[in-house]
Design a protein that fits this description.
Blueprint lengths: L1 H23 L4 H37 L1 H12 L34
């Protein structure tokens, strides 16, 4: 009779250990759920990177082949103007000086 209780106790302890490993162990259910969440996050980041790569490839192709697109990008990014055109740069809100306006010419004279 005592031998049965020892075996039963051993099997209960073994069952508890295996149950713990199944749920909370290194390879258990919680670890699986965490890995699945990380996998989904990485897939989202990969999709975003692939989309960005496609956009950049499209822009490179346009810059190499489309002269009008190239000119428009140069105008926007570098503030280039064509012959006979005038470029106006306005100060940013708040009256702070900018690199284009180092003397603060856009500021109100009453602010001293």
């Amino acid at each position: 009779m005592t031998r049965r209780w020892i075996i039963l106790g051993f099997l209960l302890v073994l069952n508890a250990v295996l149950g713990y490993r199944l749920i909370a162990g290194e390879t258990g259910m919680f670890a699986y759920l965490e890995l699945r969440e990380r996998h989904e996050e990485m897939e989202g980041r990969l999709r975003h990177a692939e989309e960005r790569s496609r956009d950049l490839s499209r822009e490179i192709r346009l810059l190499k082949t489309d002269r009008d697109y190239l000119e428009s990008r140069i105008r926007v990014r570098m503030n280039y103007v064509g012959q006979g055109e005038t470029l106006y740069l306005f100060p940013e809100e708040g009256g702070a000086t900018s690199p284009q306006d180092p003397l603060g010419a856009g500021q109100d004279d009453n602010e001293n």
